[in-house]
């Protein structure tokens, strides 16, 4: 038998084909090229980029994609009442 026990059809050509048909995914895997990069760092990275994207959608131009700089740009925008980092050539 090549299929997993939970397979309803039990008709796959190999164990791998059965697993692929069930949409198995790797939850998280460290890279051989960067073994210090972990799930927490990945979540932090994605949250930082999401925050940057949110600021850009509001018309704000932070000085970098670092959370500290993005928060500064958001705070300054609120304080001044106009988007931070946007030149006013009028």
Provide an overview of this structure:
The structure is a single chain. The termini are far apart. This protein has 2 domains: 1-27, no CATH class; 31-80, no CATH class. The chain has 90 residues and is mainly alpha-helical. Helix 2 (39-57) runs parallel beside helix 3. The protein has helices at 15-21, 39-57, 67-80. It is built from 3 helices and no strands.
Fraction of helical residues: 40-55%
From the spread of the alpha carbons, the general shape counts as: elongated
Please tally the helical runs, counting DSSP H or I stretches of 4 or more residues: 3
Proportion of strand residues? under 5%
Oligomer: single chain
Question: Could you provide a short overview of the structure?
Answer:
The chain has helices spanning 15-21, 39-57, 67-80.
């Amino acid at each position: 038998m090549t299929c997993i026990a939970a397979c309803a059809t039990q008709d796959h050509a190999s164990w791998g084909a059965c697993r692929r048909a069930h949409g198995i995914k790797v939850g998280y895997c460290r890279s051989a090229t960067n073994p210090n990069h972990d799930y927490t760092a990945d979540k932090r990275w994605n949250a930082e980029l999401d925050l940057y994207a949110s600021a850009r959608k509001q018309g704000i131009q932070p000085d970098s994609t670092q959370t500290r700089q993005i928060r500064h740009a958001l705070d300054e925008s609120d304080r001044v009442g106009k988007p931070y980092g946007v030149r006013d050539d009028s």
